[in-house]
Fold:
Amino acid sequence: MGTAFDDDVLFEVVDHVARITLNRPAQGNSLTPEMMAWFRATWRRIDEDPDIRCVVITGAGRKHFCTGADLSGVNERGSVGVGLGRVNQELSLTARQNNVWKPTVCAVNGMVVGGGLHFVVEADIIVASTTATFLDSHVNVGMVGAVENVGLAKRLPLGTALRMTLQGRNFRLPAARAYALGLVDELAEPDDLLDTADQIARDIACNSPHAVSLSQQAIWGSLEMPYTQALEYGFGLVKTQWLHPDFTEGFRAFAEHRTPRWQGE
Structure:
């Protein structure tokens, strides 16, 4: 099935995997306030639909993945379309920002700038084209590099995150270097990018959705906790899964040499 929001964002679901495509290549796949509202509604749909088990996010074309907020629109409006509330009230682009615990694979097809980094730093797995580049231009246009940049500092060496943030557009991180530093998890040639991302997503979608979701929460949650507390939190999630039908179904399917029938399938 497939739908579109003014063709600016494309959405389809195939074999338990949703694909979101930023579809404004002539504008660098930049973001409008209307698109942000679309993302909030779509993440709710994804969260509530048991048929969706994993999400792939990419951009149209090969030049840009996402160049952040549409600056021409910002100039006309005098704002980026975000208010003065808390982060989780104002930002709605990613699964994490919407408290949705279904895995996201980010397929970076080209240049990522500024707000486009939200999708990257909050993805579970990042696949990048060998031609992709990463940069942050907040300070170049008089904005503070903070939210996406905190995410960069979690996934990159501190000095590299600071160079991206403080040098602005004069520092560009190529895909190969991003891979070497751990920001990117898999490199692919441009023609193979979506196939690679889709295969990862399909592999995830074959697993117990409930176990996958709790495993996500254990790992992301550990980033905000001391080690011992993170272990206790993770063990609590392990015990939660013991009470779920997928726990016994997984062992039964293994013993019977068949594909598991996860709850909700």
